[in-house]
Each structure stands twice: as C-alpha cells, then as structure tokens.
Amino acid sequence: MTATDACRSLATGAPSGSLQRPAELFRPVDVSGLVDAEGGYVDRAIFTDGTLYQQELRRLFAPSWLFLAHADQFHKPGDFFTTYMGEDPVIVTMNKKREIKAFLNNCRHRGARVCRADFGQTRNFTCTYHGWSYDLDGQLVSAPNQAAYPESFSMADWGLVEVPHIATYQGLIFGTWNPEPVPLVEALGDMAWYMDAMLDHDEEGTEVIGGVHKWVLEGNWKLSAEQFATDWYHVNMSHASALMVMSPTGKGPKDEIVHRSGRQFANELGHGAGFPVHPKNRFDARTVHQHVDYAALRERLGEARVEGPLTNGHATVFPNFSYLPVNGSIRIWHPKGPDKMEVWAWTIVDKSWPDEVKEAQRLYNLRTFGPSGIFEQDDGENWSEVQAISHGFITNGVPLNYQMGLGSEEHDGTYPGKTSELYSDAAGRAFYARWRELMNTPAWHEENSK
Q: Which residues form the Rieske domain (predicted)?
C-alpha cells in the first residue's frame, strides 16, 4: 500500500472499503493572523492550540522532507532503526538489494507496531499481536490462519505502508510522505552550503558514535527548532554559568568572545543558521582542535565556511532537524502533542579522525549538549518555562516580539542567501513565515480529494 493510498483513505475521506471519514475532521484553520513575520510578531496560540497541532501533522510534517537517520546506522541487509515522522512511527531499514527503505511501523491487521526495538538486525518484521509478518521490502509474507479469510483476501494488498521517497544528503537520510516532492537538494536550497561546513570535511564523510540519546521535554517542538535556527542572543544570559565553568580562568569568557560579531542565515524555506565569524574560529574540544588541519579545510571549503559556520554556531533544517557543528551534535525534535517534545540526539564525527579524536568529540558533546549537558539543561529549562505559562488566558493573548534585526536581511556577498547580524531574529521570522505558508497550503492528500 502506498502512502498516497493511505492518506486518501484515512486523511481525506476517500473510500477504503465502505469507510469514509467526514470532512469536518480535517477542517483547516487559517493561520494568517497568527504570524506577522514582516512586523516581527507571533501569537502564542501556535504553541498551545491542539487544533493547530493536528493541522501541523497534516500540512507541515506529512509533506516535508524529515530527517530519519544517519547512513552509518545501516551496513548490511536487515539493519533497521525505528523513528518517527511527525507522530507517525516508521521503520528505516536496508533491504536485500542494500537499498534504504522506510515503512510505517504499523501492522495492517489490528494496528500494533511490527517492530518494538529501537534498532537491530532482522530478516522479517513480525507483529506480536497476531503474528502477521513482513519482509524487508514491506511485503506481507505470513498471516496465520490465512485459510479463514475470504477469497478476495490477497497478501499482496496488505503490505506495510511505504514512505514513497527517501533521499540522502552527505550521509543524512531524509524521507517524505509527499508522493511528488521537490528533490531534497532543492528543498534544502542554500542551506546545503552551510550544512557542508559540518558534513563535508573530506571524502570519507561522517559516522555516528555513541548511539542515540533520547529525552523528553515539556515544551512545543517549535520552541527548540526555532532557537537552533535563530537564537545566539540567549547564549550570554542563559548559559552564563556554563561559560564560566568552561573558561580557563573560571570567570567567564573574555569580552571579545562574549560580544562576537557574526552572521545569521535566514531562508524563505524556513531553514536558519547563526555563527560567529573570526579567522581563529576553532573546535572547542582541545584534542579535536589540535588534530584538525584548518589549512586543508580552507582549501576544501573556502575561507568563508572555515571562519564562519564550520565550528561555533547553530542551525535548523526546517521543520525539526537541528545541528551544532562545534561538538558534532545532530538532533531531531519529535513532536508529542502541543506541550511536549522528545529529543533524539546523535554525535557525528569525521570517519578519518583517529579513535582518540572521535572519543574526545563524543565526550565533549555529552558534557555540553547531552541529556545532562551543561548547556542543554539551560535550554530545556527555558523551553519548559515558556510552555508552562502559555496556557494562561491573558498570557496566551500577549504577542511575542521577534523584531531584532528587522529589515536587516541582505545578500552580503560572502554567504549564500540572505543573512543578518549574529544577534537577530531574522531566521526566526523566516521559520514562522514558512510555518504560516505551509499551514495555509493544502497538502497533496487534500488536493487529491477534491
């Protein structure tokens, strides 16, 4: 069964047998008045309203390219990793042809997951409820007591729902339910140039070390995704104690570090990245810094990337994939309702690095942005604090200010796309403008139902 068929039958009211869902279940809300990206205002209802959240799942997550896994997690047929696309559980696996496939982790019989492990190696995915079993291509290969079904029952009709499009960029695997998406590279646009500063250091590419760390936070997924796209502004206040601990003197960083200058990339597709710009930008982990050949990186990537987005910085690929180059952190913000998110984080390193350099980066990432990292704890507290009071009637009606750097976006001649100053809300405004656009645009499953 294709994703298009599934969405036609379940999301649009088109018949499946004699089933037909009423259109009222999917009546869209016009969000034009909730985001004023041009003026720099955001209505807090976008973080709390359950109806808007359901519309996000239909119109934002379902059509978008979403990060699934790193290619290094799959080495031989049967390797699998279970994750989510929005709130839809999916299995990502390598089939016998060594192709990466992804399927809805949902038995076609009674709807339980057919794989309950986080990752592993298998020949088939078998539902523990009634024993329906599927192969690595998603085909139903065993249904106990099959003789009891009517003659019209065909195993070929009841395979797993397949994610129709999978694409890889620099080792990062993305998928989309959209049956006719724009190519992934086109969807990334200028963002790919900034991503390459982290992912394209040499021909060997990157690999994952240390597994996947997962934790739950009280807060809307957009709070974290937006911060990683746009917010260097919070660093000196929110992370003051962490910066003191990490400074050589224990008194905090020097003034010229605190008041760094830099650029912020703000993209009409919702992507964003911010980074200080300095000829002596470096990796924070000493072992990593001492190993890295900055001259070779300048030759491969150019001065602009090495002095900018190569190391210190933050970035989000719309809607919910983010990364931090300086410590090799990549993460996904899985939505779990309007008030909760689940964070999944990987550490990636250059394959060509010696083992001791890779280990130094892993430990540095854990200390700073792991589940108990000294920076990560600060961020989680901020997002939870914002969400905790957002349901108040008066509080929820007070607009939020996104006006820093308003009108400063420009083609600066050095970095692709439009950029603003490092301290700016430009990428945040672009993030919510893209959110507004997709929320007001019927997705493919709605168009097909007309």
A: 65-163
Stretch 200-211: mean pLDDT: 96
Residue 26 domain-assigned (yes or no): no
- Rounded to the nearest 5°, which phi and psi values hold at 323? -155, 160
In a domain, 369, yes or no: yes
**Domain of 150?**
65-177
Taking every pair of Cα atoms in the chain, the longest distance, rounded to a whole number of angstroms, is 78
Could you tell me if 228 and 354 lie in one domain?
Answer: yes
**pLDDT tens digit string along 50-80?**
999 999 999 999 999 999 999 999 999 999 9
Question: Does the residue 58 lie in any domain?
Answer: no
Residues 199 and 341 in one domain: yes
Please give the model's pTM, rounded to 2 decimal places.
0.93
Handedness of CA 24, 29, 177, 448 (dihedral sign): positive
Q: Please give the order of strands across the beta sheet that includes 133-134.
A: 125-126, 133-134, 140-142
157 and 247 part of one domain = no
271-292 mean pLDDT: 95
Is residue 36's pLDDT more than 60?
A: yes
Residue 351 exposed, middle or buried by CB count within 10 Å (0-12, 13-18, 19+): middle
Instruction: Report the distance separating Cα 272 and Cα 313, nearest Å.
Output: 11
Q: What is the mean pLDDT of residues 144-154?
A: 91
Q: Is 379 a member of any domain?
A: yes
Cα–Cα distances (Å) from 39 to 9, 255, 395, 425, 440, in that order, read 40, 32, 20, 11, 19
Residue located via tokens 């660093």: 235
- Does residue 168 share a domain with residue 201? no
Question: Are 219 and 77 within one domain?
Answer: no
> How do residues 234-264 score in pLDDT, each as one tens digit?
887 777 777 777 766 666 566 655 567 899 9
Predicted local confidence at residue 13, as pLDDT: 36
